[in-house]
Known about the structure:
Helix content is 16%, strand content 47%. It is α+β, with helices and mostly antiparallel strands. It contains five helices and 27 strands. The protein has three domains: 80 residues, no CATH class; 209 residues, Thrombin, subunit H (Beta Barrel), CATH 2.40.10; 77 residues, PDZ domain (Pdz3 Domain, Roll), CATH 2.30.42.
Amino acid sequence: MGYHKLFRKKCAVGLFLTFVVGALFSAAVTVYQLPDELTVQGGGNTRLSTLLPVSVDISDEGDRAKAKLFGVVGVKNVSLRREKPRKVLLAGTLFGLRMYCDGVMVVGLSDFKSHGERVNPAKKSGISRGDVIHSADGMAVSSNEEFAVIIENAQGEVEIGLTGSDGSRKSVRLTPEYSDADGCLKTGMWVRDSAAGIGTLTYIDPETGRFGGLGHGICDADTHGIIPIQDGEIYPACIMGVKRGVRGSAGEIRGYLCGEGIGVLRDNTGYGAFGLYTAEIPALREYETAFKQDVMRGKAQILCTVTPDSEPKLYDAVIEKINYGGEAARNMIIRVTDEELLEETGGIVQGMSGSPVIQNGRFVGAVTHVFVNSPSRGYAIFAENMLAQTSRSE
Length: 394
């Protein structure tokens, strides 16, 4: 009998410790999810969509508020930014982008034979994949051709000005060497000065003509880094068809750039592609933008275009998770529930990035990524975060 009592006591202690550890873990996750800043219009008590209940009591004045766990325990000070909700025209249409780098991007390094020995001058000088070269021998570089001419006429060392993949500016000395195979000076690196692609145009500001799209940065296919741009244009895009997404393989909207330019591309950031819409603004429905604390787990809709010769259409979805402190383009997890869209695309596919997410009649975000192993699900960015980037580019 004593043994059984001891056993039950140990089990009770074990369950209690498990409960305590679980509670502490949940609290830690909740605090991690909390935002550093909230945009508000007035006062009131705001409930946040976190793992454990958190509320923020916002006064009508002041620039700080306290986030409280269970409405009682203060866990974080939150900065407040006060402004009215903005209204934008939601597009949900496919568009094409053509952009030119701010310099030339190093997309690969390759050894070659010089006087019988394998060499790589670029690697030897400290140049890495993902670096962006802005100048060579004091001359600005904006194209592959300009850079090639400088290298071909090099007399010994060439001083290279570049921005590293970590964002730091630096200068290195590169000595091109003769290639046994080509009989000319080579550097041992591959560079790219432009890129093109398609995605979904998210919104246009009717007052300024500024637009936002994609919801994530345009990345180089080889380096996977965000491409720094000098300038670019956007164009209408025509859909040829859709490759359905299946578990383990992302689908895609297949399309091409068609028609004349409709806008100027100004910025490429982790929050999307932004610029000025220069064509006549189409007749689009206007939506009020929700602040991030207004977004809730639950039913929503995605506005997108996925078939040739069709107009943007609303499809049903569910917002499953919200993370205020997550990466730029991964503020929400969203799941497609609309049977028509699932039949057509398998869920979220490449090319749908930038498709507006609407909840309770307001613009709350944009689709950004698909889960390759679960194509009905993906990430989305807060609308508020995209609009903040539009403001910075004005």
